[in-house]
Design a protein that fits this description.
Strand 5, helix 4 and strand 6 form a beta-alpha-beta unit. Helix 8 crosses helix 9. The strands form three sheets. Strands 2-1-6-5-7 form a five-stranded parallel sheet. The radius of gyration is 21 Å and the shape is elongated. Helix content is 36%, strand content 19%. It has two domains: 152 residues, SPOUT methyltransferase, trefoil knot domain (Alpha/beta knot, 3-Layer(aba) Sandwich), CATH 3.40.1280.10; 62 residues, tRNA(m1g37)methyltransferase, domain 2 (Trp Operon Repressor, Chain A, Orthogonal Bundle).
Length: 236
């Protein structure tokens, strides 16, 4: 069973995403265990504050080193962790290849950012991987943690009813997924492409590949360039 420990300033944000649909199914099956820890439970401040002003006079508050160190120390005494992940806008871009790798691990910690971030000493000495889900800033790192958790958990064998489904998702082969259709065959004169009804699996796969390539070229020229160069989007 994979274990994910999430350290959160506002743990209530995670109630919905982690207790619905596929992520909940993974927990019910005993395939994944997700444990949320409120950072406020580890502060010695009588008001349960976990932030303070930044040295140097910069605007905004910073998550203090003490509570973060305390919860990380507690968890690491209980088990070994393969990754301690900090979600932050200035982290490495999170992508499908990273999700694939993380899904093979046994124990990971996800530390949610807030305010102007966390004391840099935590990042320098304890965090092993910094991830960003996009070039924008969120008010709560819990939202990014939920995205990463969902993307990782769905890849664990046994979570999806059709395990081959995840293998054909966008980005698995560095291409965007092709169009998909279902019944009815004709709706308001809008027809399903004949090749998908042909029964010729070789032609269908060729069509899907061509559609994926066209969509990637049009919508994600940056990704297509990496595909042409034969580079791994996870490391570039």
């Amino acid at each position: 069973m994979m274990r994910i420990d999430i350290i959160a300033v506002v743990p209530g944000i995670l109630d919905g995403p982690l207790n619905q649909s596929i992520v909940q199914r993974a927990q019910d099956k005993g395939i994944a265990g997700i444990h949320v820890h409120s950072l406020r439970d580890y502060t010695e401040d009588k008001y349960k504050s976990v932030d303070d002003y930044a040295y140097g006079g910069e605007a905004g508050m910073v998550i203090k080193i003490g509570p973060v160190f305390k919860v990380l120390e507690k968890l690491q005494k209980e088990r070994d962790y393969d990754e301690i992940i900090y979600v932050t806008p200035d982290g490495k871009p999170f992508n499908q290849q990273t999700a694939n790798r993380l899904s093979t691990l046994e124990n990971i910690i996800i530390l949610c950012g807030h305010y102007k971030g966390i004391d840099q000493r935590i990042r320098d000495h304890l965090v092993t991987l910094e991830l960003s889900i996009g070039d924008y800033v969120l008010s709560a790192g819990e939202l990014a943690a939920a995205v990463i958790t969902d993307a990782v958990v769905r890849l664990i064998p046994g979570v999806l009813n059709d395990e081959t489904s995840a293998l054909t998702d966008s980005f698995q082969d560095h291409l965007l997924a092709p169009p998909v259709y279902t019944r009815p065959e004709v709706f308001r004169d809008w027809k399903v492409p004949p090749v998908l009804l042909s029964g010729n699996q070789k032609e269908i796969e060729q069509w899907r590949l061509e559609q994926s390539m066209q969509k990637t070229k049009a919508n994600r020229p940056d990704l297509w360039k990496k595909t042409e160069e034969g580079t791994n989007p996870e490391t570039t």
